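Re: Re: token formats

Sure, here are both.
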Amino acid sequence: MNAKPISENAPMGTGARMTLGCLGVVFTAVGIVAFWFITVNPWINSLRARDWPTAQCTITSSKVGVHSDDDGSSYSADISFEFEANNRSWNSDTYSFYNSSGRRKPAQAIVDRHPVGFQTTCYYNPGRPEHAVIDRSFHWSSMWGALFLLFLLFGVPIFLAGLYGTRKSKPKRQTTPFSNVAHAKKDAAELPDIFSPEWEGPQRLKPESTRLARFAGLAIAALFWNGIIGTIAYFVVADEGGIGICLGLFLLPFVVIGLFLLAGAVHQLLALTNPVVEIALSSGAVSPGQTLDVAWECSGNASRFHKLSIIIEGSEHATYVRGTDTVTDVEVFQTIQVGEMTDSDQMDFGSHSILIPPDMIHSFESTNNKIIWMIKVHGEIRWWPDVEEKFHFRVKPA
């Protein structure tokens, strides 16, 4: 087995770190600022206005405002009014705390209900009467601004990646090829955590990731992606009355990605109903040349499986920098068949004794290189998502 001798200290380039940091700041700032102005600030003003005194106001100007830019035209109800408060006359042009720019029809409806000379009730700030409003109600449509909080899911991790990428670790010697067992043993002694006592003795293994976590991750990604694309499409249709061919072709790839994410979330949701295969070992840490007892138990209807396969796999993971990208190569160097069953009774419960070959390399973890041993479970279910689980264990130095 040929592992790549990679430096332990392969920090990200300064340009890449600055780019990540700037992107993280931009994503985070856009999310916070947009959420504040679209949702939070209007909501706070609506709450405050509930305690404001009322006054009789007269509409002095009422028209539909047209706002044109490169993205097209939007419309707003531009209404001004005057009222008496504190023994003097005041003027305001705030019909609502919420941004009314959008479709022409709703803006025109507001203007039609408030012609010049029309008298209605307004609400004013007793401390600053020039701050007055006619419509102080809460508009649920402003909650779409909460979608911008999803920008933080990308912005904060990207910013942290750029921030912590600037920290240079102390120079270390290069990682030796894993075929050099003597050096690998020395490295393992420097990293005792992977051989901690908690791995010793019989134990029931935990899966690498839970089905619920995988479903939640895909669901959040699908909601984020489709929420953004759906919002864009909604406002385009609302403002323009439809989507043109050019814009439709531009949005098509993004819609397809959203559908794939949604299909993945649904697929993982269906997988939640699958039987659960649990794995137990005679010891969570075994040395090369020793025998390992592997037991499995199926919770649920094992007869749903068309075939159940259990294997032990040893793999080498090498991380290195290629140009401006950080990549990880994975090479499987050992596969041991534990069992391949088609009979439901064998799938329901069973155990096998497996010999770990004496010439195998033990588990290893460093910054850029890892030797990982795991038990992989694959359960085939016809016309339904398959069961795919991974369970880690340790192989100690001989």
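Second one below.
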Amino acid sequence: MDTHPEGDWHRPPSQLTLGSEDVHVWRIPLDPSDTVVSELASILDVDERARAARFHAVIHRTRFVVGRALLRRVLGQYLGLRPEEVAFVYGEHGKPALRGEATIGGLRFNLAHSKDLALLAVVCGREVGVDLEALRALEDAERIVARFFSTREQADFFRVAPELRQLTFFRGWVRKEAYIKAIGKGLALPLGDFDVTLAPGDPPRLLRVQDQPDEPNRWALAELSPGVGFVGAIAVEGTGWRLRGFDVTHGPQANTENRE
């Protein structure tokens, strides 16, 4: 699947099932009422509360709390655990994963956020990366492409009409970020060491990874439509998977009630 259409977000079934061919993406609003934020904050562990406290701006602290708490709630429903029982470990470059017995079923996830929205991707038995960006005027988009993107991507980008370059930049950026998050390297992998499709109309694909000629065959990319003013992308290991989208709701029963 190359694109997840805008509006294709659904309320999930009361019992979640996740097969090896399923890819679930959750859309999480990060600005609920103060009452909801207070209730969600009680879910976090000591380390997460300390991390939240380090945010100077209240809005950033709130969005961190909401994102982490709802991450716990959603994963807890898949695992049959209370949100407080979900435990994490972190890879060399900071990619989170489940810890302990929760890893036995092969559940894996990735979280991205931008402004007041987050996306959570959940899969079973394969790696996944997701990215999200709020569209905005970015004066140095062309400079970033010229300095950090690959030679092929630069050529594709600068062939695009100037009025389309902002959107082209963000679509390319989320595709590249989704891939490097999926492999768990973050920006330890230079952005110029691999190519993704960039030109308008080109379906999202990984085209090349330096010194790894078989790597593009290992991954499939899809464009996500999180809503007006946002772009998103997902990178999933393997092929033959099916994508479903859910909308998280807030409040005491806000476990996984979303729309596909």
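The radius of gyration is 18 Å. Residues 30 and 116 are 5 Å apart (CA to CA).
- S.
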